[in-house]
């Protein structure tokens, strides 16, 4: 299993357990379902759901090589280990209104002191010095009647790859868009686990 296979499997495995996790997910503040939960809690719920049922291991909050920040996931098979940064791709609030800040949280190339975006996470991984350059994982949610066609998971996957190529001297390639549906939340009704692999453009 190489890095591409591992990122493909990670998306498939996470997507396969989302409906089951969704059935049990109850938020104290928002409507029922996995969709309203914050990124770190969703990652932990999905990791726990696949634990022991994959051909690889998943660690959360693994340290970067410099000992400073921590990578969201570190996936490791018998032959390869890949750092993976995760971002919640949720563009609507609990009530269905568009979150005006959600787009920049994903696609902004400008690093902030307290937060990172999917783009800046890609740069951080590329420069981190891991043996494998790593990957990105997006937790994408949408209503079944999403009115913006260009907000489909496939469109988001394509746009992110184009943006990385525009801003940086490396590339990402989409490895998987693994769909799920039938969720309980009236807005976050379906979605996909998207994975990208960082590749050197030289």
Describe the structure concisely for a colleague.
By secondary structure, this protein is an alpha+beta fold. The chain has helices at residues 3-24, 39-50, 102-107, 118-126, 153-167, and strands at 57-63, 70-76, 81-90, 135-142, 170-180, 190-200.
List the helices and strands and how they pair.
Elements: H1 3-24, H2 39-50, E1 57-63, E2 70-76, E3 81-90, H3 102-107, H4 118-126, E4 135-142, H5 153-167, E5 170-180, E6 190-200
Parallel strand pairs: 3-4
Antiparallel strand pairs: 1-2, 2-3, 4-6, 5-6
Helix pairs in contact: 1-2
Written account of the structure:
It is a single chain. This protein is 32% helix and 27% strand. With 202 residues, it is α+β, with helices and mostly antiparallel strands. It has one domain. Strands 1-2-3-4-6-5 form a 6-stranded mixed sheet, with helices on both faces. α1 packs across α2. The radius of gyration is 16 Å and the shape is globular.
Keywords:
6-stranded mixed β-sheet; 202 residues; 5 helices; 32% helix; alpha+beta; 6 strands
């Amino acid at each position: 299993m190489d890095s591409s296979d591992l990122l493909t499997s990670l998306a498939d495995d996470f997507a396969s357990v989302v409906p089951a996790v969704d059935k049990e997910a109850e938020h104290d503040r928002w409507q029922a379902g996995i969709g309203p939960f914050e990124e770190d809690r969703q990652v932990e719920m999905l990791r726990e759901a696949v634990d022991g049922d994959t051909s690889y291991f998943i660690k959360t909050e693994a340290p970067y090589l410099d000992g400073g920040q921590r990578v969201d996931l570190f996936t490791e098979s018998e032959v390869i280990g890949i750092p993976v940064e995760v971002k919640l791709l949720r563009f609507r609030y609990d009530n269905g209104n568009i979150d005006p800040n959600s787009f920049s949280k994903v696609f902004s190339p400008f690093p902030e002191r307290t937060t990172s975006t999917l783009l800046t996470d890609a740069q951080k991984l590329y420069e981190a010095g891991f043996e494998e350059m790593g990957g990105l994982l997006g937790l994408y949610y949408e209503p079944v009647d999403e009115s913006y066609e260009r907000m489909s998971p496939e469109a988001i996957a394509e746009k992110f790859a184009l943006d990385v190529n525009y801003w940086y001297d490396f590339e990402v390639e989409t490895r998987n868009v693994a769909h799920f549906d039938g969720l309980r939340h009236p807005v976050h009704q379906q979605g996909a686990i998207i994975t990208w692999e960082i590749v050197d453009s030289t």
